[in-house]
């Protein structure tokens, strides 16, 4: 294997942030777009947990977590992106995003899996828990790396995108102008366009950005 191999799923926010980190870092990699109903045996052998993203390095080492993949990617040559995410405030935002916000997002997006009558409660908790804190940060600076983007932006953006997609009109009507602008900037970025290119399912292909 001459390039790292990323097992991925286009719409998964964890896989999105891994792909974006690899693209930003300029790392040539292969990709395997999985089918959730027919996961490849090679991926399951490398990572029995069965979820994406999974990055298999040319050495055979397996990285099974998206933040682990991001760190590895940025340490290959774009380390300032990773360093910018290590401030206490950014670490707190990432932990909140991956913890309580993700739980609330799932309950808001998939009410049929949980208690449907509590959907709006979880939506509002997500706003108070993460989005208002994000708004305070972004009202002062364009990115979470202050004047420049960093890994924290990429780690959080896919989940805010998913939250907005549940009800775009409602999200856009909220008093979150800095967060809305930040989100739109990422949605309209060349990086996101490259990240979201469609790949054939269940095929090992060269990822060309």
Description:
It is a single chain. The chain is 55% helix and 9% strand. The chain has 209 residues and is of the alpha+beta class. The chain folds into two domains: 5-79 and 196-207, Glutaredoxin (3-Layer(aba) Sandwich); 81-190, Glutathione S-transferase Yfyf (Class Pi), Chain A, domain 2 (Up-down Bundle). A five-stranded mixed β-sheet has the order 4-3-1-2-5. The longest helix is centred in the middle third of the chain and has 22 residues, at 88-109. The two termini are 20 Å apart. The model has no long low-confidence stretch (mean pLDDT 97).
Short characterization:
This protein is of the alpha+beta class. The chain folds into two domains: 87 residues, Glutaredoxin, CATH 3.40.30; 110 residues, Glutathione S-transferase Yfyf (Class Pi), Chain A, domain 2.
**Chain-averaged pLDDT:** 97
Supply the number of helical segments.
10
Instruction: Give the biggest sheet.
Output: 5 strands, mixed
- The CATH class name of the largest domain reads Mainly Alpha
Cα separation of the termini: 20 Å
- As a whole number of angstroms, the C-alpha radius of gyration is 17 Å
Helix content: 55-70%
Task: Please state the second-level CATH architecture of the largest domain.
Answer: Up-down Bundle
Topology as a string of helices (H) and strands (E): EHEHEEHHHHHHHHE
Name the poorly predicted regions.
none
Shape: globular
Number of domains: 2
Q: What structural class do helix, strand and pairing data support?
A: alpha+beta
Taking strands numbered 1, 2, ... along the chain, how are they ordered across the largest sheet?
Answer: 4-3-1-2-5
Total strands:
5
> Strand content of the residues, in percent?
5-15%
CATH topology of the largest domain: Glutathione S-transferase Yfyf (Class Pi), Chain A, domain 2
